[in-house]
Design brief:
By secondary structure, this protein is mostly helical. About 75% of the residues lie in helices and about 0% in strands. Keywords: DNA-binding, Transcription, Transcription regulation.
């Protein structure tokens, strides 16, 4: 019987990576970027700091895999073909995610670093892309291409401000109002 090489195909390496990435994602969502250190992730995952550093030499490396895991775990509501209803469902899902409060710390850490770190800019873009995938898809299916991004910014921006900056509940009536206002400025294709 051959001994395992400890390389990328080794099940122990895959298990270690999985455990560490899950621990990193949990720490990032619960505590934020600053608290998600190699030492904290090692403690949560049950591995040594040396093991963490061997696979993720920098905090950006660690965050990249954690954010990829978070983004891959994101679910978007199914669409039914009705612009208004699909937008309402997608915006409600986004509002629910933001109301949980876990993404505030995640976004704050990424945004803070994006101004001076290209890796963090990439993570910021990935988070935005993931968070807006459902809404973007609905808009793209119904609006002229040049109306998609401005309408997306109006809708997502309103949800983000209400839930995160104002700390208010994003009600169904609020969502309906912003959809009406945004669609009033665009013409379905």
């Amino acid at each position: 019987m051959a001994k395992s090489s400890g390389g990328p195909g080794d099940p122990r390496v895959a298990r270690t990576r999985r455990d560490v990435i899950r621990a990193s994602a949990a720490s990032l969502l619960e505590e934020g970027w600053e608290a998600t250190t190699h030492a904290e992730v090692a403690r949560r995952a049950g591995y040594s700091k040396a093991t963490i550093y061997a696979h993720w030499p920098t905090s950006v490396d660690l965050m990249r895999d954690a954010i990829t895991y978070i983004c891959e775990d994101a679910a978007h509501p199914p669409t039914g073909g009705n612009l208004y209803e699909d937008l309402h469902d997608s915006l409600s899902a986004l509002a629910l995610t933001l109301s949980e409060g876990r993404y505030d710390r995640l976004m704050a850490g990424v945004i803070e670093r994006a101004g001076h770190d290209e890796g963090a800019r990439d993570l910021r873009d990935r988070l935005y892309e993931t968070a807006t995938t459902g809404v973007r898809g609905v808009l793209a299916a119904h609006l002229r291409p040049d109306d998609v991004e401005p309408c997306l910014a109006m809708l997502v921006g309103a949800i983000l401000v209400r839930a995160t900056y104002e700390g208010e509940t994003v009600t169904s009536a609020f969502i309906a109002d912003i959809i009406d206002r945004a669609l009033d400025r665009t013409a379905p294709s």
